[in-house]
Recover the amino acids of this structure.
């Protein structure tokens, strides 16, 4: 759990006996919405930091290390990503990164409208993305939205809170993966943040991977360092059709990035040997 000691705020991973501490200037807001507890702090050296349900979600000076790596491997690999769906992403930063590409439309579906209003007022990570004419913001449960819509997408990006948390638990189920598969075009990419530290959450990584393989024939795992988290973070991709994602993409766009580079793409899909063994093993692991 997260605790406040004078001007120190801590993201505490209690089961593992480890945490991350940030020195803060002040708390900007603390609000319990219908779905989650949201806190925003102004830190001494790293800008604003967002906590949801006592866990760090984003740190301003470095948030691109997460959002760029969630979005661009899929967006660069798809030959023509015209229609994109984001589920979650209340900060607006995932939306911002999607809009760097030559798309026709992006829908962002988030269950918590209050989170979006807090992001607009206090975080401003979207850098104008919420007002972009290509973007449609929908306040709804992502699972329910997919159940009733007939729309098809080229890329579906899941930027939800971690697996097992109340607000997003339905987004990490086989039924949800099947819905996403059905709503992808013939050639489509599904990508989710795994809510998984590469060194701590072996069972969680393996479960997500195995569940996705029940729906997508081609599932890839990649990992990259994310500022403010304990170690490399895991992302998981489900591919529909004939798309290669673990190679350097040929596509170029005239946009600036802080962390992502096409030359990086092949290396992030090269997993450490211990993780390769975990994913290929039929045994459970801790």
């Amino acid at each position: 759990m997260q605790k406040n000691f004078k001007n120190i705020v801590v993201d505490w991973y209690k089961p593992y006996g480890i945490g991350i501490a940030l020195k803060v200037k002040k708390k900007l807001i603390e609000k319990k919405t219908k779905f989650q507890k949201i806190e925003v702090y102004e830190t001494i050296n790293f800008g604003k930091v967002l906590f949801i349900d006592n866990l760090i979600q984003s740190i301003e000076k470095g948030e691109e290390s997460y959002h760029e790596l969630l979005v661009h491997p899929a967006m660069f690999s798809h030959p023509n990503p015209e229609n994109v769906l984001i589920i979650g992403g209340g900060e607006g930063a995932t939306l911002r990164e999607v809009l760097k590409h030559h798309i026709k439309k992006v829908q962002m579906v988030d269950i918590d409208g209050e989170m979006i209003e807090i992001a607009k007022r206090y975080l401003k990570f979207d850098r104008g993305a919420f007002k972009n004419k290509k973007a449609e913001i929908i306040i709804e449960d992502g699972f329910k939205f997919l159940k009733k819509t007939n729309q098809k997408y080229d890329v579906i990006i899941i930027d939800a809170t971690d697996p097992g948390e109340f607000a997003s638990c339905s987004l990490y189920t086989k039924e949800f993966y099947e819905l996403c598969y059905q709503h992808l075009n013939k050639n489509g990419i599904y990508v989710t943040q795994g809510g998984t530290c590469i060194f701590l959450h072996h069972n969680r990584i393996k479960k997500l991977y195995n569940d996705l393989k029940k729906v997508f024939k081609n599932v890839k795992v990649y990992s990259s360092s994310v500022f403010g988290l304990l170690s490399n973070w895991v992302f998981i991709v489900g591919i529909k059709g004939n798309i290669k994602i673990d190679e350097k993409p040929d596509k170029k766009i005239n946009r600036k990035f802080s962390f992502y580079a096409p030359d990086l793409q092949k290396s992030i899909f090269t997993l450490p040997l211990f993780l390769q063994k975990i994913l290929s093993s039929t045994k459970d692991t801790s």
